[in-house]
Amino acid sequence: MTTANLSKTVVVLGTGTMAAGIAAGFLEVGMPLIVLGRSIEKAQTTLEQACKLAQTLGAKAPSDVPQEAGLINDWNNWTSVAWVIETVTEDFDIKRALFQDLDRRVPAHIPIGTNSSGFPISRLTDGLLTRSRMFNAHYFMPAHLVPLVEVALGADSDPQMGEAVCELYRRAGKKPVLVRQDIPGLLANRIQHALMREALDLIDRGIASAQDVDTAVRFSFGFRYAAAGPVLQKEISGWDSMARASEEIYPSLSNAHVLARCVADKIAEGKTGMKVGAGFSEWPKEQAEQARQNYDQRLKAAFDVLKMQ
Fold first, then answer.
1. CA dihedral in degrees (212, 216, 222, 224; nearest 10)?
2. Rounded to an integer, what distance in angstroms lies between the CA atom of residue 148 and that of residue 231?
3. CA-CA distances (angstroms) from residue 104 to 29, 111, 297?
4. Which of 12, 24, 18 is nearest to 48 (CA)?
5. Contact 228, 222 (CB under 8 A)
6. 276-303 pLDDT, tens per residue?
7. What tens digit of pLDDT does each residue of 256-282 get?
8. What is the pTM of this model?
9. Is 266 within a domain?
């Protein structure tokens, strides 16, 4: 993929929540879009949802952006396509079959991505003839608001093409990172799980409540991370002070290899969060809906600030 064709059409395969959010991001910046599904009706509905989401991002007339709905199995007009990303059901066999099909149907110069958070691109594309143009392209929910896209190389992915995919995302207003090795959790989820392991260990040991853990993160380093990542923040404050603190803190950090007891117990009790009405807190329907709205509003405010940078 060359710089000259980065403004061409994007194809999104799938009709779920992630597909609509991903599609909205491209519509918001005016990039021509095709949404493919197992039925025309679902693909068209996803396009309509994407247009509505794009409007919440400030797009004035997303419906005026060139767009089309089609069938995954029938679509074969790849002439102006610069990027294909699939968001179908998180089932290995389904995704593997789809990649086998795309391997044959999509011209070899067009890169293809998967939004899978659980299946490495190396496994999904093992043995395929054009696997060098295939990547993970991992978004975070809600996809239309969270700027990060992790573009991960598989064992046989072409790094230059991966860089070109990142450039496409930059032009689409996203914040891509190139993950140069196909490892579990890629980049952001590895860091997030390291934090979560320590947070849950502190709850398990009775050192802090779940609510106090959230407050500590949101209003200390989490607050700073909206302005600077962990490396830049320490460049500002100084690595020597961090190094001195690490001598005391590192030996006491959790290195557990199993799920924290406090979460395992909640799952055993059926308390898996807002979707069932209870987790670490009780979540009556109205309270849960308000919390979700607050969450989206905060993300939107952060998104608007980032767009000005």
1. 150
2. 17
3. 30, 13, 43
4. 24
5. no
6. 999 999 999 999 999 999 998 888 888 8
7. 999 999 999 999 999 999 999 999 999
8. 0.87
9. no
- The single-letter DSSP state of residue 251 is G
Sign of CA dihedral 118, 122, 125, 130: positive
* Cα–Cα distance measured from residue 262 to residue 44, given in angstroms and rounded to the nearest whole number: 43
Q: Residue for token digits 């500002």?
A: 236
Residue in 22, 108, 12, 18 with CA at minimum distance from that of residue 68: 12
User: Cα separation of 55 and 67, whole Å?
Assistant: 15
CATH number (domain holding residue 151): 3.40.50.720
Residue 295 in any domain: the answer is no
Please check whether residue 80 lies inside any domain of the structure. Answer: yes
Structure tokens belonging to residue 193: 């799980």
Of residues 69, 118, 123, the one with CA closest to residue 100 = 123
Q: How many CA atoms does the CB half-sphere of 95 hold within 13 Å?
A: 26
User: How many domains does the structure of the chain reveal?
Assistant: 1
Structural contact between residues 50 and 33, judged by C-beta atoms closer than 8 angstroms: yes
**Surface-to-core class of residue 270, CB atoms within 10 Å of its CB (0-12 exposed, 13-18 middle, 19+ buried):** exposed
Of 12, 18, 53, 20, nearest in space to 36 by CA: 12
